[in-house]
Amino acid sequence: MSTSSTPTTTLDPDSARQGYDRDRLVRVAVLGVGMMGQDHARRLATLTAGAELVAVSDVDVARTDAVAQEFGVRAIHDPRAAVTDPEVDALVIATPGFTHEDLVLLALDAGKPVLCEKPLTTSPETSRRIVEREAELGRQLVQVGFMRRFDAGYQQLRALIASGDHGAPLFLHCAHRNATTPPNFNSEQLMLDSVVHEVDVTRYLTGEEVVAIRVIAPRSTAQAPEGLRDPQFVIMETESGILVDVEIFVNTTFGYEVRTELVAERGQARIGLPEGMVTQSAQGWGGSIPKDFKERFGAAYDTEFQRWIDAVRNGTNVDGPGVWDGYAAAAVCAAGVRSLRTGERVEVDLGPRP
Amino acid sequence: MSTSSTPTTTLDPDSARQGYDRDRLVRVAVLGVGMMGQDHARRLATLTAGAELVAVSDVDVARTDAVAQEFGVRAIHDPRAAVTDPEVDALVIATPGFTHEDLVLLALDAGKPVLCEKPLTTSPETSRRIVEREAELGRQLVQVGFMRRFDAGYQQLRALIASGDHGAPLFLHCAHRNATTPPNFNSEQLMLDSVVHEVDVTRYLTGEEVVAIRVIAPRSTAQAPEGLRDPQFVIMETESGILVDVEIFVNTTFGYEVRTELVAERGQARIGLPEGMVTQSAQGWGGSIPKDFKERFGAAYDTEFQRWIDAVRNGTNVDGPGVWDGYAAAAVCAAGVRSLRTGERVEVDLGPRP
Amino acid sequence: MSTSSTPTTTLDPDSARQGYDRDRLVRVAVLGVGMMGQDHARRLATLTAGAELVAVSDVDVARTDAVAQEFGVRAIHDPRAAVTDPEVDALVIATPGFTHEDLVLLALDAGKPVLCEKPLTTSPETSRRIVEREAELGRQLVQVGFMRRFDAGYQQLRALIASGDHGAPLFLHCAHRNATTPPNFNSEQLMLDSVVHEVDVTRYLTGEEVVAIRVIAPRSTAQAPEGLRDPQFVIMETESGILVDVEIFVNTTFGYEVRTELVAERGQARIGLPEGMVTQSAQGWGGSIPKDFKERFGAAYDTEFQRWIDAVRNGTNVDGPGVWDGYAAAAVCAAGVRSLRTGERVEVDLGPRP
Amino acid sequence: MSTSSTPTTTLDPDSARQGYDRDRLVRVAVLGVGMMGQDHARRLATLTAGAELVAVSDVDVARTDAVAQEFGVRAIHDPRAAVTDPEVDALVIATPGFTHEDLVLLALDAGKPVLCEKPLTTSPETSRRIVEREAELGRQLVQVGFMRRFDAGYQQLRALIASGDHGAPLFLHCAHRNATTPPNFNSEQLMLDSVVHEVDVTRYLTGEEVVAIRVIAPRSTAQAPEGLRDPQFVIMETESGILVDVEIFVNTTFGYEVRTELVAERGQARIGLPEGMVTQSAQGWGGSIPKDFKERFGAAYDTEFQRWIDAVRNGTNVDGPGVWDGYAAAAVCAAGVRSLRTGERVEVDLGPRP
């Protein structure tokens, strides 16, 4: 049984330069152990090769202790302390969005790699500050948790667009459906928590920035809680004039579904179609619908984490979506919230990229 | 071999009242024998039980004579004369749209059943005139050629909505794609010739009028001829706030496709998905795409004609879409053309129904 | 209103030669008005252009009278009298199989076109007799009701095989599933009433005769009535060595399904896949399964009848499956019944074709 | 950066008893580094959490050295030495089948966990010897590489059968298709290398042993190399009379495909249907077919390895298919080879399970 403890001569000049040892495990702390953070802790503890979960941290002391015990790791009650802990090599941030700016900046100061759940921060201004701080460091340390970029379907679709086989993209028709929302979910969260993924998908697939957004709301479903406009219809325009429409509907009652359809000059493509076993019975023919995002995107999260740890171990820059992606998404979503209030088309200006 | 000539005692009081004899064939003239009219002539001559094609009529004399000879029927060079011909019981109008008003009004005067290809007329005002004229007659004589109402898919979707099983409708996502357009096809024709079907589909499926429309155009495909904005994106709102979006794209190069997706409060449904043989080969797995509307909607046209002839034979009112449907579609499309020019949302007011 | 009574100058020399008048309707009598015969009567009365239902005939006097009244046609209580009736031009035979030989031979003597529901007769010997009698007449008068040949899917599959694009066929995997069977349905009827279609399909698709058959039975379903081996598994071999396996399962409880999968040297193809509207709801995603053969093959029956009447009107030979097809199917099924009893592979020898 | 070296107090009494330390990595040697072994080496080195690839071993010295260098691990030129090496905790055996018996028995003697690629051995007799040897040890050390048991589709299908919702299984219709075979592939290998998977799938899904097998060969494809009967059709019967048919076709030219269809008393289910992006273009609609087993079953292999390492780390018995599964598959395949030669149905008798 190996302890992986033998110091090895690192032959790879790149990883040597970065100071990482490929034979060692990356010691990770998970900050925020709500539903998402616990899921990530389990992933790091059991599934991600090369990672070692060493600590969890949350302002909720009882929860932190319980999760720490479950995984046999340290409980650190102050997330800021976890960031700077010398026994922690890298950080997964799954705390509430309003804490992200502070924690990410602290991690940048500490020179530690971060995988930060979306949103990067809750405003374009604060995200922009992180963009600038990382640019000063001259090295990409922060990956934003846009896990769809690691989903096989989105990768196939992006490759198809990049191939040019179907000509230039003209439309992306997107649907983002949830079975239900948590209590107190409001209309702006639809934009900031859900549509934010479609914003990143648009940028990832087309390689273009979003320049304008408008939100139109049809009648609301009777299933929507008081005060929530659900569903909504979001229309984005990219630099070259690609039109992206998003049906965002978070109280479908029937399950979780995320689909994207590309319409290009000479072809069309769809991802997110039903998969898995197809049955026939007295009820008809068909299959089951994923019940939540974990079922739909579980493999994408696994891949996201594996590739992030690989990059950290190899001492290379993280190769996933970075702070500029987080900033651009925040800026588009902020414009979307304005459009939701006014009903008008709102333009987006990202300013120069540092 | 029967000649169907024996006078029969008509027992059905309804048909007796209307003066039709169920054992006789309905003598039909087809006005306009371009591609569409020829197709209808063939349908009446070979497929529609109870119909007898007796004449064809077109201002193009040579074409009229050729088609008449092909089917062994009379050539009538003046379409107005065909309408009033005593040997003609019923009329199919497939002439250019600008001629419809005159011919339909003439048929109403003659008290003859008409199946009029869409558009009913080229403006809401002229369509309204027909609505009022038919209302004066107190009897439905005109059916408008919205053949999708006879497509099994649309009928299934309508029945689903009517059942209420999925709750109230919230969205219809529609796509209408053609391989190519004829020369000189312009941006307004996209609205008047293609989107008009989606307007009727919206009204047929939801049972509501369209109250507003707006048109947004993404970048145009390089395949579009000079001067044609293609594709376009049309957004309609119905009385209860259902949002209907339509991708209209008429130079896809890859074939003909018409899809509709319903999103309701507790379910979702799609029609127009690929059907037929599915193959596997070195090119992958898949199937073929209909090349044109005849392949996609051939069975719907057959059913439309059979049911129209059945109604005419039985002396009952035609049961298909009528002049109000034609008028409403014309009014919405006229508003759509305005929106296409201004980029603004345009409201639609149909006025009172006579 | 036309009576179609005006004698026309028949310009088509072919139809003149055959003695038929294209402007007249073919007067048809339906023999046997059980479920199938009534369905055909309705089809001829309302859907088949060029046909006129003039009489129905069944040994069940009350049923004959009721159906005759429903359609407003003559009731003829002796089917043999209907065959020879001078006011009857053509015959649809939907009586029980054991009566077919007599009625078809009578029709051949009368020189009248026949559409005979399968089976042509109940034994290879009697079918052979009809083959020889028709051969003496030198003219094809009898079409056997293998309606699948008029189903779009089978036609696509046959065209694919004929194209040679996928190389030579190697397998046909077939499934034939019914929801339930009528009382007293026995194991041999599975072969004679159901597998008979797969025998014809095999011959139609491959253009080869079946040279051997064997039947293997897995455990029976608990839903099968006493005495019925259900399901069964039938394996046929064609002249060139194509292997055809058939799952025949007639108490599935879930609906009616007929699928065929071709495996060829360089490709594979499937027909009979689910079609129509696809929904999503709390029950999952999917669609409905046809409840019976009428739903699955309704359009095929319509086409079969239209093409048969067209051929009769044009005075040409019927172009559908003929008596040799009926005989070959009967011979293979008889061998299948032997295999069912013995468990052995049974070879089939059709003898020379007259 | 952690070295995971701190000795931890193992709280889990089970793992303490087995002598494994949960915080340490399992040191694995891969025996046989052909295509399959290299793939497994890469998997252990980069994807399997808790594993550490420490050595590779192959009788081909040059290949061993090259692969060892690629992964930065030891090259051991004698596979038997790798088995007994004290720095190796567990073994993956991917050497040719004829070497398996010797290596597995040696590993059993050494008390080391083994993941042995199928076949367990090349004859029922030798497999039986391993079954008995492991039974003497009283502890499951050997897992056989039937990776399909870790495929989500097979797991869904098994759960469906186990639920009883569809009643008792009656049929499994299976297809196993490869694009091409390596040179010198012969008819018996079709059974031993390919059908062996379907044998295990049958046992895994139904929980029953196979009691008889017969092989029928249709005409061979022109693409088959000299001497290879390809395709073949294999029919198995289980204890309760479930019929399992397998189309095995290894020169399809079009790709890799493994499908299984269950037919049960009140329902039907399919797995292995096409997944992933669906496109439309001038070539029609459709998607791509996996090119090989790595693409089709890559995720199953990943899961198989992760769960095997998890079990080894936890010091529990391996939970995957064991030596009895390997023996039963070998016995059925040996009977299949006999049937292939004689054309007869061959019964299988496994003898008592130790």
From TrEMBL, chains A, B, C, D:
It comes from the Bacteria. This is Inositol 2-dehydrogenase. Belongs to the Gfo/Idh/MocA family. GO terms for molecular function: inositol 2-dehydrogenase (NAD+) activity; nucleotide binding. Its EC number is 1.1.1.18. Pfam families: GFO_IDH_MocA (PF01408), GFO_IDH_MocA_C3 (PF22725). Keywords: NAD, Oxidoreductase. HAMAP family: IolG. Involved in the oxidation of myo-inositol (MI) to 2-keto-myo-inositol (2KMI or 2-inosose). Residues 154-269 form the GFO/IDH/MocA-like oxidoreductase domain. The gene is iolG. The lineage of its organism: Bacteria, Bacillati, Actinomycetota, Actinomycetes, Kineosporiales.
